[in-house]
Amino acid sequence: MAEQVFLAVDLGASNGRLVLGRFDGAALRLEEAHRFENGPVRVGRGMFWDVLRHWHEILIGLSRARQQAGVPLESIGVDTWGVDYALLAGDDLLLANPRHYRDPRTDGMFEAAFAIVDRETIFAHTGLQFLPFNTLYQLLAEQRSPARLLDVAEQMLLMPDLFHAWLSGARSNEETNASTTQLFNPREGAWDYELIDRFGFPQQLFGDIVPPGTPLGPLRDEVRRATGLEATEVVVPATHDTASAVLAVPARAQPSERPDWCYISSGTWSLMGVELPGPRITDECLRFNFTNEGGVEGTTRLLKNIAGLWLVQQCRQAWNARGATWDWQRLNDAAQAAPPLVSLVDPDAPEFLAPADMPQAIADRCRHTGEPVPEDPGAIIRCALDSLALKYRHVLGQLERLVESRIETIHIVGGGTQNRLLCQATADACGRPVLAGPVEATAMGNLLMQAIARGHVASVAEAREIVRRSFPCQSYQPHDTARWDEAYTRFEKLLVPGP
User: Fold this and answer.
1) Is 327 an active-site residue?
2) I need a surface site. Which of 240, 253, 359, 378 has the fewest CB within 10 A?
3) In CATH, what number is assigned to the domain containing residue 35?
4) pLDDT above 80: residue 499
């Protein structure tokens, strides 16, 4: 077949990328067309996303992608993180800058929500992990704000839905991202209007839900004029970045009620879970605070959100803000030189959510729990990575109980696969082989979903075969597991109870 070229707009919490995918019928090649930094903008106590800058960068990237592709683009699709939203009035007027999920306005919203609908009922309706930044709690904070934006908003669009609307002119709510809101019923595959009504949210905010692979129409005329692109089709991928990443996991087994593999989508967050044919909403799932989120082809991602490399990223940012020059390789070398398993923390301790100074927060946490206080950057990063690997072990044990089967292989995908120390520590801590790769799993999943929608790939199973042909994985075997077993006994005492 003639080469087809697709474009993924992949917006992460720390950077955004526009990635071309060249597909020749057998293999997929990726080319980065544009990259830009991303992160929260602090104004007073608030944390916001600068979506107009995102849009400006997307338009720059579309122009560069057109020039780089050399042929007309087959389609374009956007993926981002979950939970955050924009409120629109008529004519796509943005009512306010969207808040960042780490914004402190949701402080106290758990208690406010549970006073209206109890925790057990919310979980029975949504099957979602309780996280303070879920859209439900953000909307509850919005509802109580003096601005009263919910009273004048015409519709709520999650972040990728917003950019799809600006690209195509068509408003939609894509299913995998809608499933992160804690206002979506995974059994019904629809908004849970009973919960929405009980919380007093206006029903008109919640638009039509569409599955991954839905075509929205061609680029708007204004976008074509600004970028030089033709009437390229806008196709909705799995817009939640983890759902796209899971599509690109190079596993051979089909979704099963008792899977023998799990994934870790590793980046700012670590999303660790399994792919199931449908939701698993049980008392034990609630007790372990797991989540049922939508996947491709009607699957469910039973997973848990873990803090991930956020701790490392924020340490680097803090040190560089003081005038240091820590690049990723230097940080990894310093951590590799530090002795392992000296200091441990729970990566999901609440003081790590949005601290002003992450190295200080880690040191304070160690001091509070009686752990040795790491004194230098190498020791601090080693503490974060070792702790993260042990948290994976903890979640692995919970996963195996929930699916009543042994997980034999851990697939790690995403940017975290480049951290060899973390990959090896994961194998050692969990006592399971780790297959790491591909790095660009989210962009790949986005591109392959477009290829499926456009009829060039038949199924997710075929897409995963394309991943295996196109991108090699790195294998890590467990070593020195007795030492990690001993450390895990200590680590369990440091875990912070969930909500």
Assistant:
1) no
2) 253
3) 3.30.420.40
4) no
